[in-house]
């Protein structure tokens, strides 16, 4: 196996308390040495990568993606999704179970892991469904699912409505040492709302999805979690109220982690006026006050990690042909207000995120909201811990999953260049600062942006 010497970069490795100029030697798939820059390492045979001006960090981990495979190859495949992940700097992604068939059985998990092995890109960690078919009734066999390779349990896309089913799921997963990730939605309150309940939804005549639909379910589920003592993870938190509930539950000893998406901490509900259904997702983009609350929670540590909720969709599912003429920078949605309600109601939820996440997260550093080490914690160390992986570290002897980031490289989001099969993003044309230039998985380069 070949060796790689990453030379002259800034190593940021919060797991080992490192932040400074070090050389990193990768050999035989592992981290062979991390030494002060310029130290003569025994690396004559290594390919030298000049990492000056760059950060060398443990490979990024995304705890929440939808790869649509098996079932929806027109939107994404495991191959295209894992290549997009590698291009975004991710070495591992956790793939949600709402595929077709649902990932609630060993054959589907095996299929996913085999396709991932063939891809030779980012790694895939399968998330198992909590209930069979995501139907909210019968629980999966948790031990068998863990044996098949699942590292996290979630019915994401769907809430677990039955409190007793959730309570039993927390006990089962907790006994095995795994967390349950919760899609928090009280559907009696969200009522198929397509946009945040507020001025924008009212202006467009689109049904509204209130903050309470999320926070009321967070309140119930955290009460159950406190009772069981098991680990829960709140997916894609979007409201100020949910954050308060998470803080309060922690004070009462709950084992609760949470994630935020780049779109929720970057955009507010008004993005729908520019981007149409490419700004429709579940939970919806919220008010400016909620965005500020999320950013405060990133800074104060309430939010543990960043997740993309990468949700690829083809233009037809997004009803973009009905909107295309009206939306985009410089256009106004006012012109279609008479039929916006129906278009938004029928459009699929979600945005792609793997290739924009790091650039959007780096904005938090450039604006001095967080330190670089905290970014690495949120995008590598914490999600690795959630998935019970021995990743998120550059310790000598660890598996060499490494991301090299140029934090100051400016680029413009061009969806037509995405390696993802889908283009549904509200960030097209945005100028971002910083991106991954090299992604290494098990000592092999799986993405090389220096050639791009
Ligand atoms: Zn979800």
Structure characteristics:
single chain; alpha/beta; 4-stranded parallel sheet; 452 residues; binds zinc ion
Offer a concise description of the structure:
With 452 residues, this protein is an alpha/beta fold.
- Label the structural class: alpha/beta
Hetero groups in this structure are: zinc ion
Spatial extent as radius of gyration? 21 Å
Mean pLDDT: 95
Cα end-to-end separation: 25 Å
Helix content: 25-40%
Largest sheet: 8 strands, mixed
Count every beta strand, where a strand is a DSSP E run of 2 or more residues: 18
Report the β-strand fraction as a percent range. Answer: 15-25%
Helical region count? Answer: 15
Describe this structure in words.
- The chain is of the alpha/beta class and 452 residues long.
- 33% of the residues lie in helices and 22% in strands.
- The protein is built from 15 helices and 18 strands.
- The strands form four sheets. Strands 1, 2, 3, 4, 5, 16, 17 and 18 form an eight-stranded mixed beta sheet that branches. Strands 6-7-8-9 form a four-stranded parallel beta sheet. A four-stranded parallel beta sheet has the order 10-13-14-15.
- Helix 8 links the parallel strand 13 and strand 14.
- Helix 1 crosses helix 2.
- The longest helix has 18 residues.
- The mean pLDDT is 95.
- It binds zinc ion.
Chain-wise SSE layout:
Elements: E1 4-13, E2 18-27, E3 30-36, E4 47-50, E5 55-58, E6 60-65, H1 78-87, E7 90-95, H2 106-119, E8 123-128, H3 142-148, E9 152-153, H4 163-176, E10 180-182, H5 187-190, E11 195-196, H6 199-204, E12 208-209, H7 211-228, E13 231-234, H8 240-251, E14 255-260, H9 262-266, H10 271-275, H11 288-300, E15 305-306, H12 320-323, H13 337-346, H14 357-366, H15 372-386, E16 402-412, E17 431-441, E18 444-448
Parallel strand pairs: 1-4, 1-5, 6-7, 7-8, 8-9, 10-13, 11-12, 13-14, 14-15
Antiparallel strand pairs: 1-2, 2-3, 5-16, 16-17, 17-18
Helix pairs in contact: 1-2, 4-7, 7-8
